[in-house]
Amino acid sequence: MQASRCLQIQSSRIWCGATRAIAQQSDVDHLLRTNFSRWSSSSAAQASGASQVIFSGIQPTGVPHLGNYLGALREWVKLQDKAAEDTRLFFSIVDLHALTVPQNASTLRGWRREAFAMLLAVGLDPNRSAIFYQSAVPAHAELFWILSTVASMGYLSRMTQWKSKLQLPDNTNLDDSAARTKLRMGLFSYPVLQAADILVHRATHVPVGEDQRQHLEFSRYTANSFNHRYGSIFPSPEALISPARRVMSLKEPTMKMSKSHADKRSRIILTDSRDDIVKKINAALTDSELNITYDPVDRPGVANLVEILSHFEGRSCDEIAQEHRSASLRALKTHLARRVADHLEPIREKYLALMADPTGYLDSVAEQGCQSARANSELTMRQVREVMGL
């Protein structure tokens, strides 16, 4: 294993250096011995209810958009900054999940790096949170297989993930021959891997959007099934539902903001320039009424702009609509564009600096987070292997 080295960037020193040879069992054992007292005392505190473990992940689809930021990434930073000192935090680029659809290798490699850089740019601190690539921690895949032996096929068949990805009706089941022809095992068992991601770190709390609650319930169900059969190993993770409203498409405000939309003007990417942000918000679909009201049903386009503004001003939508009731839509868009651009500019600048940095800082942070995640997950897997006779 290569010797450790120190790297300083933006006045922050981080420990880095161990290469992927850490994946070998001897290196894992060395790392566990080095950190055993720290991890075991933290685990004991968790068992007694004295501490929390928070885990969440994001798929690598390149630079996140505004909806990803307001609904998840900004909430992660808030959790990190407000967490008690003994709370442990794990945030992952879940690249194994990305493989449920065909990927170009070079494209995926670039997307992974872009997503990782953005986690740092928005404010996650590698000295406080373990930030890592899912695929670099083998225990995620190992526990996925073990949990597959207790996961319910019936439960999985009722979940919406594989149906929505295949654009099938919600009432589709495995008796449908067309569904069976399209469906791949990885997509069908996606929730089992998601449960493994959470449980391998013995997470007590998982920040999720309302649309992910079903997946967390499956994780709780699977943890309980395993514990009932083999003994109490896993905590039952609780959802931390994001208070943020879903950010809707700027061009189709009845749909969530998404990178899959054909019109690039439908979304604001976190690296968009000020000019791009102004152009996209000015082109946002609204209506022909002259005044500003907050009416998500009859005026979804205007409501979307008001909701986005509420994220940045920390005020209710009704309050914002009342304040701007006599303003024109053009004035509202101008005000919103300025607030969004001002907020995202430092994030964009930090991201660009990280991506251009020649010192290997991103790789060092990834290795640091990977080692923390491996050490923590290996403690879990040793208990799992023991109770299962492996």
Which key phrases capture this entry?
Rossmann fold; 390 residues; single chain; mainly alpha; 7 strands; two-stranded antiparallel sheet; protein biosynthesis; Tyrosyl-Transfer RNA Synthetase; 15 helices
Q: Can you walk through the features of this model?
A:
This protein has 390 residues and is mostly helical. The chain is built from 15 helices and 7 strands. α3 packs across α14. The chain is globular and about 70 Å long. The two termini are 28 Å apart. The N terminus is likely disordered. It is found in: Mitochondrion matrix. Keywords: Aminoacyl-tRNA synthetase, ATP-binding, Ligase, Nucleotide-binding, Protein biosynthesis. Belongs to the class-I aminoacyl-tRNA synthetase family.
How is the topology of this model organized?
Layout: E1 5-9, E2 12-16, H1 25-47, E3 53-58, H2 66-82, E4 88-93, H3 105-121, E5 130-133, H4 139-148, H5 153-158, H6 161-165, H7 177-182, H8 185-188, H9 190-199, E6 205-208, H10 213-230, E7 238-241, H11 274-282, H12 300-313, H13 317-323, H14 329-356, H15 361-388
Parallel strand pairs: 3-4, 4-5, 6-7
Antiparallel strand pairs: 1-2
Helix pairs in contact: 1-15, 3-14, 4-9, 4-15, 9-10, 11-14, 12-14
GO molecular function: ATP binding; tryptophan-tRNA ligase activity
Pfam families: tRNA-synt_1b
Organism: Aspergillus clavatus (strain ATCC 1007 / CBS 513.65 / DSM 816 / NCTC 3887 / NRRL 1 / QM 1276 / 107)
CATH homologous superfamily (4th level) name of the largest domain: HUPs
Q: In DSSP terms, counting alpha (H) and pi (I) runs of 4 or more, how many helices?
A: 15
Spatial extent as radius of gyration: 22 Å
Low-pLDDT residue spans? 1-49
Distance between the termini: 28 Å
The assigned CATH architecture of the largest domain is 3-Layer(aba) Sandwich
**Helix proportion of residues, in percent?**
40-55%
Specify the CATH class of the largest domain.
Alpha Beta
Q: Write the element-wise H/E pattern from the N-terminal end onward.
A: EEHEHEHEHHHHHHEHEHHHHH
- What name does CATH use for the topology of the largest domain? Rossmann fold
Q: Tell me the domain tally.
A: 2
Profile the largest sheet: 3 strands, parallel
Strand order of the largest sheet: 3-4-5
Alpha-beta classification: mainly alpha
